[in-house]
């Protein structure tokens, strides 16, 4: 029997909901060799890509990542996987979208070129994205990227985003924002994956049904539950099964 596709879920605290989905049996992960390598986001300041792998900058960080990996890996070599799904990894798109929408609501001051430049620089400027790009540059594993999900919907907390001019702009502009980010990522050998549409409400927020339990009391509007993790993990597993083993190439 042929070897199974090797899939690694690499991320910060946002990858925990994928692990919870697997543990709870919400996703059929048969047909792939699945592995997790991650830690809370603060440790991402101590990672770099060199020699075809993500390496911690110090032994403490290396041991922290190894603690949550079934094989005790102290670094993440791209060549040992067919697909690496970068999950969360402190890569935010909501903030970029919000910045642009607020600017557009104030008047016609943002040209299409400037919008593309803001999105391009905003994506490539994030440390987690640079790790994903470094893995993709090895030309070995295919790299998928699911950014941090939109903030959980809360009318009081995000009242400014719900100003009269914004909803129509969200409908018109956000799909194009995603398309630009996908194009930019593809240039870097990364397949960027949009947030599942069924989890989105009001065009720029995550439905509270996918929030962690007690998210209001905890003031946690970022993290997701196992139901959300199941959608993301299932997508990654299906893509790995379907032979997504060849790296993404730029259209150049």
Counting structural domains, the number is 1
Broad shape: globular
**How far apart are the termini?**
37 Å
Number of helices: 8
Query: Structural class per helix/strand content?
Result: alpha/beta
- Quick one: CATH superfamily? SGNH hydrolase
What share of the residues does DSSP label as strand, in percent?
Answer: 15-25%
- Going by CATH, the architecture would be 3-Layer(aba) Sandwich
> What is the helix/strand order?
EHEEEHEEHHHEHEEEHH
List how many beta strands DSSP finds. 10
- What is the mean pLDDT? 93
Radius of gyration: 18 Å
CATH level 1 name: Alpha Beta
Commentary on this structure:
The protein is an alpha/beta fold and 252 residues long. It has one domain: Rossmann fold (3-Layer(aba) Sandwich), CATH 3.40.50.1110. It is built from eight helices and ten strands. Strands 2-1-6-7-8 form a five-stranded parallel β-sheet, sandwiched between helices. Strands 3-4-5 form a three-stranded antiparallel β-sheet. α1 links the parallel β1 (6-11) and β2 (33-38). α1 crosses α8, α3 crosses α6 (166-187) and α4 (112-124) crosses α6. The protein is globular. The protein starts with 5 loop residues before the first strand and ends in an 11-residue tail after the last helix.
How is this fold's topology laid out?
Layout: E1 6-11, H1 16-23, E2 33-38, E3 47-50, E4 53-56, H2 59-67, E5 76-77, E6 83-92, H3 94-105, H4 112-124, H5 127-137, E7 142-148, H6 166-187, E8 190-192, E9 200-201, E10 205-206, H7 215-218, H8 226-241
Parallel strand pairs: 1-2, 1-6, 6-7, 7-8
Antiparallel strand pairs: 3-4, 4-5, 9-10
